[in-house]
Amino acid sequence: MVSVIxxxxxxxxxxxxWRVKNPNxxxxxxxxxxxxxxxxxxxxxxxxxLHDLTTSTDIIPAIKTDHSAISLELNNNDNQIKGPGxxxxxxxxxxxxxxxxxxxxxxxxxxxxxxxxxxxxxNIWDWLKYNIRAHAIQHSKRRAKERNKKExxxxxxxxxxxxxxxxxxxQQP
Length: 173
What we know:
Elements: H1 2-12, E1 14-16, H2 17-21, E2 30-32, E3 37-39, E4 45-47, E5 54-60, E6 69-74, H3 97-117, H4 121-167
Helix pairs in contact: 3-4
């Protein structure tokens, strides 16, 4: 099986980017508690052309699996300035009571602002949609930051415990 993978790698000019970036590091992507076994079963094969664009790669613990994840960061050489793109309303926000109550309380304020400068009902409707969009984006970013902060904290705690376990697998918590 290894020879087949190696021949495919050679034929397609693929490299195991984690091994290339970490030639002397011992780290494992799979573990088993009984009997105690650590192996590197998972690989991230990429085109050799992407080698220079790879800024970092790491093996990190994954939750609810006996396999670890392989992370890969690529640097984009294009220095193109991109616009905000197309926005679509995340309908899951409508199930968030905090968001719905907040929008309901702000609609009268937005309407009052709109009536000052806008006379056409279509323009007022566009003004309302603009404010709802801006508020939805702001609310979603705030929720994402909170969620990412919590996830990063849990990931760090899990990593610490996993490191301690690797040091002494027989020690009971």
